[in-house]
Structure formats: C-alpha cells, structure tokens
Design brief:
The protein is of the alpha+beta class. Helix content is about 20%, strand content about 35%. It contains seven helices and 21 strands. The termini are far apart.
Length: about 400
C-alpha cells in the first residue's frame, strides 16, 4: 500500500526551482555574450555592410566585408520622383555697360540672378513655366535649365507684380515632365510637404527639403513699388521646409507629388528660423490663366490715385479733406484719370471713400483687395464717400484699364 511523503515532494520542488534558476542564468550568459560581441565589433550588421570572421591556417582571424544595396522607397521619394523633373532653373540675364551698370544697346550681357520655375503645361509645341515676377524682373534675356542640365532660351509670356507671379515659355521638345497641380484649399496644418528648387544658384539645382505646413492663410504686407508704403496683402502658405534665395518660383509639393504652392518669399531675419512662404496653387491658377491668354492679369479698373487717410496729417484731414472728426480711416482720392469709370461716376479729387457696396473700407489695401478679388470687369459697385464733410453715394461701372 503506497503512502504520501511530504519530504519527497518538497525535495522535488527544490530541484525544479534550481533547474529554473540554472536555465535563466544560462540565458543571461548567452545574451551577455552576444552583446559583448556586438560591442567589440566581432559581430557587426548594419544597413550597409556585414562583417564576418574566419580562421586562417596560422590561427589569425581574417575579416571580410559584404556591402549591401538598400532600395529605400517612401512617400517622400515617390513624390520627389514624380515632381522633381518638372522644376527648372531660371537665369535672369541683363545688359550691362563697362562699369557693370545700365542697359543700353551694344552693352554686354551678364547674369543678374537665378531662380526656379515649374513646368505646368505643354501646348502647341511650347512648354509653359510658372515662376515669380521678381525672378524675371528686369531681364533682357531668360534662360531655362532643365533637371538634366539642358539649357533653353525662354520668352516672357507675362507677369503680375501684385501676386509676384510670371509665366515664361520655352520650346517643348525637350520637356518630358509636367507638374500636376493639387488643391491648396485641402491642406491641413501639420501636413508634410516638400520644397524643390535651386537654392543659392544652379550648383544646388534640384535640392529637396522637407517640412510641414506651419500655417494657412497667412497675410504678408507687400511694398510693390518700394516707396515705404504697404501696397498689398499677400495671402500665403507658411512652411518650415527650408526655402532659400534661388528657391523662389520653385514647387511646394504634397506627399502625392502634386504642386500645392509656388515658393515666393522667406522671412530672413537674424531671429527668425524656419519660416518659408508659398503662394497657394488655388490662387496661382486663375492668375496664370489670365497671363497665358492676355499677357497680363485683367482686373477691374476704377481710375483713381489713392492714399490712406491714416497716412494723411490731422491738419489736412480737417482742412483739405474736411472730414468729420469721427472719420479717422478711409481712402482719399488724390487724382482721377480722365474718361475713367470714377470720373464718369462724378468722383473727384479730395473725395474720401469709406465703403464699397456693404463693405467698410479702411485703407488702400482693403480697397484694392475688394476691387481685385470681389469684382470683375463690367460689374457695378456702390461707392460711399465723403465730400466737403457730407456723406455721399454713387455707382461706378468698372472697366478694364485699356478703356
């Protein structure tokens, strides 16, 4: 008859526990040995090479290396492959005299600057390239450099200083890649983007930088005629992708390889880092369509010279414009072109515009934005203004500047 021995069971448990400790210790020794081998370089396996050892007849170890080729494919590389060949270099060539100044017939030509551009269309044997107005400004000749180094003479189709955009045209035979436009209105803050262009000149052509959308619908003040007064508020995309001199006119690209902006400006101050600006492609398209068709942007024309009331001294506000003291903003008419829509509607010098339709007008920039963005040639606009201290209203039928 069997019997139960408590001591035997306890002894078996102790043996099992000892065996478990032994196995755990053995595992630790093996792992530690592997770590020592890795740290000493005897066992080396990285992304690019494998190092192995084998013994020779004299007992010394001999090392051999095997290089590995990695095929790295990502959303970024796919986007670059799709869009990069559509980005070209643009050289602005201007005539200079012996002293490197001026532009007279017979003077020599010299490179005045370089920028970037984006090939967006081929039609009728020609290829159309969008760039910045400041890239081509003042050029006597333009030269385009393709991604493979081919150089082509270019002609200016037209430009628009208000939006800092221009279109140039080259022979389309050598053009193989056309950019695809996306929709800047669909962008989200934090979305990854790529900037493609030629920073610091053609020696860095086709440079790629990556960042994110830092902000949408940013407003930047622009002094177009460099008189110290703000002429326009440009709405731009903000990105932290590096955009340097020479990148102007290049592409801001989403992860689908679509162009969603034309790089235009960078805030370059000592205390500022990582603020690049790009013109939204949704705003670019109607501008370049007008330039293609007319050589310029067709905008509604009022026919007046203007000055913001805030820029006029208090003395002239009261004694020349004769404004009520409660009126501290608006736009003063400093001149009226003959036979213009404004003159036909009865507007005169020293009238002060304070409203258009149902919109209050505080300064020249607001007037231009409302006129250029909300009105078309042939539209009518109600003008609310002050004359000799009295509030008046008139209706103006807008025309093009050619009339």
């Amino acid at each position: 008859m069997g019997y139960y021995d408590q001591n035997d069971e306890n002894q078996n448990k102790r043996k099992k526990g000892q065996m478990g400790y032994f196995l755990a210790g053995l595992g630790g020794v093996i792992i530690g040995a592997l770590l020592i081998l890795l740290g000493s370089g005897l066992l080396n396996n990285d992304d690019n090479e494998i190092t192995t050892e084998k013994s020779t007849e004299n007992g010394y170890a001999e090392q051999s290396q095997q290089n590995l080729t990695l095929d790295v494919t990502s959303a970024v590389t796919n986007a670059v492959d799709k869009a990069s060949d559509a980005v070209v270099g643009i050289t602005n060539i201007q005539e200079t005299n012996f002293w490197g100044q001026g532009s007279k017939a017979g003077d020599s030509s010299a490179e005045a600057g370089t920028g970037s551009g984006v090939v967006y269309k081929k039609d009728g044997g020609k290829a159309y390239i969008v760039t910045n107005n400041h890239v081509i400004e003042g050029a006597n000749e333009l030269e385009v450099t393709l991604s493979d180094g081919t150089k082509l003479p270019a002609e200016l189709q037209g430009s628009d200083p208000w939006t800092d955009l221009a279109v140039i045209v080259v022979n389309g035979d050598k053009i193989k890649t056309i950019a695809e436009f996306g929709k800047s209105g669909k962008l989200k803050p934090g979305e990854p983007v790529i900037a493609i262009g030629n920073p610091l000149g053609l020696q860095f052509s086709g440079s790629i930088t990556q960042g994110i959308i830092s902000g949408l619908e940013r407003t930047i003040e622009v002094d177009i005629n460099e008189d110290g007064q703000v002429d326009w508020n440009a709405e731009v995309i903000q990105t932290d992708a590096a955009i340097n001199p020479g990148n102007s006119g290049g592409a801001l690209v989403n992860m689908s390889g679509q162009v969603i902006g034309i790089n235009s400006m960078k805030i370059a101050e000592n205390a500022v880092e990582g603020i690049g600006l790009s013109i939204p492609i949704d705003s670019v398209i109607p501008i370049i369509n007008d330039i293609e068709e007319f050589g310029e942007v067709k905008r509604a024309y009022l026919g007046v010279n203007l000055a913001s009331v805030e820029e006029i001294s208090q003395y002239h506000q009261q004694n020349t414009l004769k404004l009520p003291r409660k009126v501290t903003s608006g736009v003063a008419i400093t001149g009226v072109q003959s036979n213009s829509p404004a003159s036909k509607a009865g507007l005169k010098e020293f009238d002060v515009i304070v409203g258009m339709d149902n919109e209050k007008i505080h300064d020249v920039v607001e007037l231009r934005k409302y006129l250029y963005n909300e009105k078309k040639i042939g539209d009518k606009v109600k003008i609310i203004y002050y004359r000799d201290g009295k509030k008046e209203t008139t209706e103006v039928k807008l025309s093009s500047s050619e009339i």
